[in-house]
Amino acid sequence: MTRLQFHLVAAAGVLLLALAPALLSPFSITLMNFIGIYALAVLGLVLLSGIGGMLSFGQAAFVGIAAYATAWLTVKAGYSPWIGLVVGVVLTGLVAAILGAVTLRLGGHFLSLSTIAWGLATYFLFGNVPMLGQYNGISEIPPISIGGYALSSSNSIYYLIWVFVIVSLVLSANLLDSREGRAVRALRGGQVMTESLGINPFRVKLITFVIAALLSALSGWLYAHMSRFVSPAPFDVSVGILYLLMAMVGGMAYLSGAIVGAAVVTLLKNSIQDWLPVISPGASGQLEVIVFSVLFILVLQRARAGIVPLALRWLPRVQPTPPLASGSLVHRQQPERGQPILTIAGATRRFGGLLAVDNVSFEVKAGEILGLIGPNGAGKTTMFNLITGALPLNQGRISFLGQDISRHAQRQIARAGIARTFQHVKLRKTMTLLDTVLLGTYGRTSSGFFAGVLRLDRAEEARAQAEAMRQLQRVGLADRAFELAGNLPLGNQRLLEIARALAADPALLVLDEPAAGLRSAEKAELAHLLEALRAEGLSILLVEHDMDFVMGLVDRTVVMDFGAKLCEGTPAVVRSDPRVQEAYLGGVA
Ligand SMILES: Nc1ncnc2c1ncn2[C@@H]1O[C@H](COP(=O)(O)OP(=O)(O)OP(=O)(O)O)[C@@H](O)[C@H]1O
């Protein structure tokens, strides 16, 4: 399907939505209103949990904060619902920023557990504060008015709800297709990967968390003025779980999954409410919970990815948008060949009583490939982690381009010009090759969330895309730019990681066992690429096990054993050193 056809289909969908009030019964429109209101909250959850990887059970609390804020302001203080919208959104954003700042550093399921805690706390707060009507809630909330026209009927508020849904969907899609959106998509790759790209994962998580809360706030505002009544029950943690179910049914990783999931679960809930009283009069409330619990488990077991990816398999693929590709990002002036660029002086790292790196000193010079080798447990990986900032030094000093980086965080080191790859490839499998390499340009570009959402970033994005295409060409993967990273064989995935690292325009490339797991043809291709990069003036530090690969490629080698530096020199010198033969080569030379 071409882009034009896709836009025509989308326009037809919007037209159908616009005609719905003329075609459907008022009851169906009320259901559609609920679907739209749920979809807004679920859209936030998709961004937060499905795409950003932060599982939240507490999204209903944010819906509630905005709903109560507008209810109180309009009923008790007599303000317009539009003031209620502004205050509701600001208040929800503030609460989310504070909660996020406190909880988002928690790893793994501790974050999810904390979302349950504040979900419950908010529910009890609503139910116990006399000003908020306690468990009776606040009633007689006025309808929203536009230019003196009150949106008091289902049909009239319908348009407002769906305008909010469509605008939020489009803006969220814009975000995901921008510099910061790619950072959100990278979060699931873990802290070490995101930091290695110069991204501050905590900041990205916090902003995503606030955006998700703001979408919930819009949902809460519309809910309050559509229902004209708020009470604690619709903002309970169980509703937060229902939102999660909607996201999972629709497709957690897809923005459109929010609408599909909200629609399927709302329609199902409605039909359950029709037939459960017939099966079991008097117990339908409890049975509904059981039916949804069973559904949740079934979805987890059978269709974890949701409906949207299933449907996408049958629908024609939309042609990828051609890269914007114009102009170029600023390139760094590479240091003069032969100048020391990385100096390690007396680096020491202990793990308890074990000296993993023991007073190691060496230099990497501009334009050379330096190999760091040693037998298993010699301390190479620890040394690698010290250089890239993944581990702090106990003693010693590391300087890069004359700057002391010993105490720098990983992302500062990345931004200073050291780009790395990983022994176990760290790629987001569902990102295209182009997007993967674009991630590498993060530290060289500056468009923020706001610019991304409003598409004010296109000029910079065009330069970044041109750069990403150039790096893909450099590693020989340009013709596969729109394929998914997960579909590549391991050898190509390693090349892709190198392209991503090169997109950061580093002065030093550090590679962690790049030949591990590669077939000999792939190794030859990799060696050829590294030689070409050296010829262009790039400096490379290679931590590698594969002796043939290292010795045929590097200018100099540093050998480590038992945490200490054993010797250093050209491959010929190192090969003939008896200490090395004894410790590592076992007489191979
Ligand atoms: N996080 C850690 N906690 C405790 N000990 C560690 C830790 N990381 C590494 N070590 C120990 O430090 C020593 C050096 O390990 P390191 O992984 O740096 O060696 P290596 O040369 O990279 O080995 P390999 O080639 O097997 O990866 C080993 O004895 C290892 O068990």
Q: If you had to describe this structure to a student in words, what would you say it looks like?
A:
The protein is of the alpha/beta class and 589 residues long. It has 3 domains: 34-236, no CATH class; 335-417 and 508-515 and 540-589, P-loop containing nucleotide triphosphate hydrolases (Rossmann fold, 3-Layer(aba) Sandwich), CATH 3.40.50.300; 425-505, no CATH class. It is built from 23 helices and 14 strands. The strands form 4 sheets. The chain has a 6-stranded mixed beta sheet with strand order 10-11-12-7-13-14, sandwiched between helices. A 4-stranded antiparallel beta sheet has the order 6-5-8-9, covered by helices on one side. Helix 20 links the parallel strand 11 and strand 12. Helix 2 (26-51) crosses helix 10 (237-250). The longest helix is centred in the middle third of the chain and has 27 residues, at 201-227. The structure holds adenosine-5'-triphosphate.
Short structural description:
This protein is an alpha/beta fold and 589 residues long.
What distinguishing features does this structure have?
589 residues, alpha/beta, Rossmann fold, 6-stranded mixed β-sheet, 4-stranded antiparallel β-sheet, 12% strand, elongated, binds adenosine-5'-triphosphate, Metal-dependent hydrolase, ATP hydrolysis activity, branched-chain amino acid transmembrane transporter activity
Helix content: 55-70%
Strand content: 5-15%
Instruction: Tell me, rounded to a whole number, the average pLDDT.
Output: 90
| Helix-and-strand structural type | alpha/beta
Which small-molecule species are bound to the chains here? adenosine-5'-triphosphate
Distance separating the two termini = 59 Å
Instruction: Tell me, briefly, the overall form.
Output: elongated
Low-confidence stretches: none
Radius of gyration, whole Å? 28 Å
Total tally of structural domains: 3
Task: Tell me about the largest β-sheet.
Answer: 6 strands, mixed
In DSSP terms, counting alpha (H) and pi (I) runs of 4 or more, how many helices?
Answer: 23
Number of strands: 14
Task: Give the neighbour order of strands across the main sheet.
Answer: 10-11-12-7-13-14
Protein name: Metal-dependent hydrolase
Transmembrane segments: 34-51, 58-75, 81-102, 109-126, 157-176, 206-224, 244-268, 275-300
Domain ABC transporter: 342-587
Pfam family, one: BPD_transp_2
